Amino acid sequence: MKKEEALRHLYEHVCLPALEERVAALESFFLENKERLVEDFVQSVRQIAIKIKTMQEHGAMPAVGFLHYSLLRTAVLDGSNHYLIEAYTDKWYWEAVECFGSYDAGWAFQGIPSLLQLLDEQRKKYIGVLDTPDVERLILKELDFFAQFVTALVRLSIPEVVKLPEYQQLNKAQRFQIRVGEFKDISEPVYVEDRLPREEQEARRLLEQTKGSFCTHETFANMRLRQLKANEMDLRYTDFSRSDLGNSEFRHCVLIGTRWGGSSLANADFRHSLLCDADFRRSDLRGVHFSYADEQASDDRLYRQPGLLGIRFDEANLEGADFRHARLYKASFYGANLRQAMFLERDQDRFDLTEAQRKEIRWTAE
């Protein structure tokens, strides 16, 4: 048996089942411990923010434009499991400023040592064909399945990060980003903050483009955009926090990972939209139309994003909202007001609701 054939056999018959088992265990750990994990992550931002501020006070750091959390694959193999935190100006890699920190992501890679041990034992069955470095390279290629939980944690932590006094006191560039990804390689923005206020006319122009347009990872926080018509748009990971969007339309939109926390959305229309991982906590959602909205997440055995964070209506005012035919069965309604909200009778056992909430809901046949 040649090495390539042996590696393929080892991956399909040993590695893949073991990966699925460990990713499932990690998902359970993440969901059970996410509050503590958020606290630890926020602390890492606090520490790097203190360092940046000190450097800025001494003239050693201009306005910060990027905060980058980088996966170091070799750090996972050696067991240190830390992400490198780097602060950059708005010129990113092209203006080197040495400002580094570290985040311990050992919780996300806790299944790696046993996986390495298993594969190292099993590779011996391919007598003389595979060695330990072959197993290590195989593991390195699969780290994204574990790193996806770190990215999800960063997204989950952003509302707490932006509250930090140390974060708020930073001198930031006109456009500031927190990104997560590979060291000096591919990364994705998990938070974008535009420091210059956006004019309403410009915001409407971006959001009311031709149907099917993309406007992702943008910021429309703290804006007054009532009666907006942003139908059939891809708006994934866009931030609408604390905005006035009453009577607006977001029909047939891709709204994966959107943030609406603290916004006024009374009588808005989200019919037929994909709301996977959307965050509506503490929002005014009176009379909002959610009919035929969907929470469809990844059904892959290894990839858990999107869908890991779930849709959150915690402490939102959903009085009179319409959830008929809405496929949002995993949504969280903790502390939400559901007085006179409309749900289908056949969905009574599909939503996670308290008895008090169930009594306030209008259960209808259609």
Descriptive account of the structure:
It is built from eight helices and seven strands; from the N terminus they run αβαββααααββαβαβ. 32% of the residues lie in helices and 12% in strands. The chain has helices at residues 3-57, 73-77, 112-123, 132-141, 144-161, 165-168, 200-207, 355-360, and strands at 64-71, 82-88, 100-104, 172-182, 187-194, 342-344, 362-364. The protein is globular. By secondary structure, it is an alpha/beta fold. α1 runs antiparallel to α3 (112-123), α1 runs parallel beside α5 and α3 (112-123) packs across α4 (132-141). The protein folds into two domains: 3-191, no CATH class; 197-366, 3 Solenoid (Pectate Lyase C-like), CATH 2.160.20. The strands form two sheets. Strands 3-2-1-4-5 form a five-stranded mixed β-sheet. It has a two-stranded parallel ribbon with strand order 6-7. The mean pLDDT is 92.
Briefly say what this structure is.
With 366 residues, the chain is of the alpha/beta class.
Task: Chart the SSEs and their pairings.
Elements: H1 3-57, E1 64-71, H2 73-77, E2 82-88, E3 100-104, H3 112-123, H4 132-141, H5 144-161, H6 165-168, E4 172-182, E5 187-194, H7 200-207, E6 342-344, H8 355-360, E7 362-364
